[in-house]
Records
---
Amino acid sequence: MRDHLGNFMVAGNLGFARGVLLLEDCEGTFTWKVTGTGGDDVHAFATAAAFMGTNGLQLKTRTTGATDGDYLTVGKSFGFPESGLLVVRARLCIPAQAVVEIAAVSLTIADGARVYNAGVHIKPNDPGMYYVDVAGAEVAMPALADPIVDGSFYTVEVVVDARLMQYVEIAANGTRVDLAGVAIHDQGALVAKSVSLQLYVEAQGAAAAQIYVDSVYVGEFLDL
């Protein structure tokens, strides 16, 4: 099983390719939905946040009145994937780990009957990476617990089966963790079919926390 496009950083307009929900190179107009603790937070395309090209996505919690637990989330919503198999892949960087409690990449999936959440939580000061289980609790993945270097980009990938509402795998730092058959979080609400992606940063201590994200892909996995 693999996603049908493989590495997506290729020439050409793939915006309407079958199964592609999002190709975000951060070079166009910022259209993400923003929530958080407000103030002078930063949610914008910025040169300092680029992995490749001119810009990346900079997410920084407020500086004025900064406090422990400040957070910033950006998100995008899509239609439900045709195949039911879904992957999100992004390049992520934490410039200063000491002030970041959590960086997260997550998917909210509504199948028309229930709402579910799947994702990876990165806690650079543990250090550790966690997936969100069926009860909404964090479960450590020791294979992904290698220390993260300040200022280094690495790939984070979450793969889920939206037909069975189960994980397939999570990957980071070149290592994959097989989570086949592990149920994702059942949030229990009723909404129409949809998928949304959230990118999240939370501050540790009374200082602004930030992450950089670039080359974001959301799309289908196909049975081959």
Note: DSSP finds no helices and 17 strands in the chain.
---
Amino acid sequence: MIYEGAPSIHLADIARTLRQKRNENYRCLYLNSAPMIAGMRSHLAALGMDVEKEIAEGALVLSADQGHLLDGRFEANRMIEALHVALQLALADGFAGLWAAGDMTWEFGSETNLPKLLDYERRLEVFMHSHPQLCGVCLYHRDTLPRQAIDDALATHPALYVSATLSQLNPAYG
């Protein structure tokens, strides 16, 4: 998902998608800043989800932890390994899979190493293709990322998230 403006504008739509994936028995992981986590909690509650119960049961993980960063720098291996572990735990706990969403500006930290971001996105797509129980949405804030990062994101993702009810094939993929 490529968006402009305040990140909070899209929380309601991402929350609807998350709820849909929970209804399909996916463990849901939402990674973002603490204020965005608070906003997601509010939107999920407004949709009728018992957020505290979902968290206590391990069905919902809302995290502002940036343990995938090393000295403030993005580490693709750590991030992919963390997703792999989270997926394996979700499957072992009886979930259909893992649905994850995260804002790439937040995930990448203060680093602006675009080749590293592109490498991560390519590796993530390979990982997702080999682990079909993992799905999700990468959010790209057009206002905070260089144009090249947006172009690279388009080239590495086969589908574009438009809304909770619409995804489309990405003509720029490949």
Note: The first strand starts at residue 2 and ends at 3.
---
Amino acid sequence: MAARSSYTDFLKADLGAMIDALGLSELQKHMVRARWLDQVLWMERRANAARDRYYALRLTTIVGGVILPALVSLNVSDSATAGPIVRWTTFGLSLMVALTAAVEEFFHYGERWRHYRRTVEWLKSEGWEYFQLGGPYRRYKTHAEAYPAFAGRVEEIIQRDIDQYVTKVVQEQTETKSDKEKQGEAKPAVP
């Protein structure tokens, strides 16, 4: 956790220093920090948190899923002490595997991780091109000249991110509602 925090601190300091060095007005520098840098840092933290949760849940599910068959195959029914311990361990582990799989399915941490990682890398790339006056900014002679284009492109990235996220959430809610309606139709009517 400390390494991640120090990386975020490094990014904030390093990118902040780059922003300070740009030939922009103080208001423009403030806007770059408030909109672009803030989003980069926020999404970096969100991507890392989603990755950590995804890995923890998936590894627990995988490792537990591998251990369970071994526990089930143990023939300890004759043992007065080992039998109950193995049965309760098997029960607890199977419950944990089911819970971690269900939590991952519900929260979709893997998808969130990839979504945030893709967007933060896109934002970083846009920032690097702007700082270097490369890519779509190569036709500008100064950062001040390129600022409106940069601000517009950052807003497009953020809007696209919001649209993708909202579309996905709405789609999942619609699918869940549709699944519930189908289950309701399948139930016999009660007189």
Note: Confidence is low (pLDDT under 50) at residues 186-191.
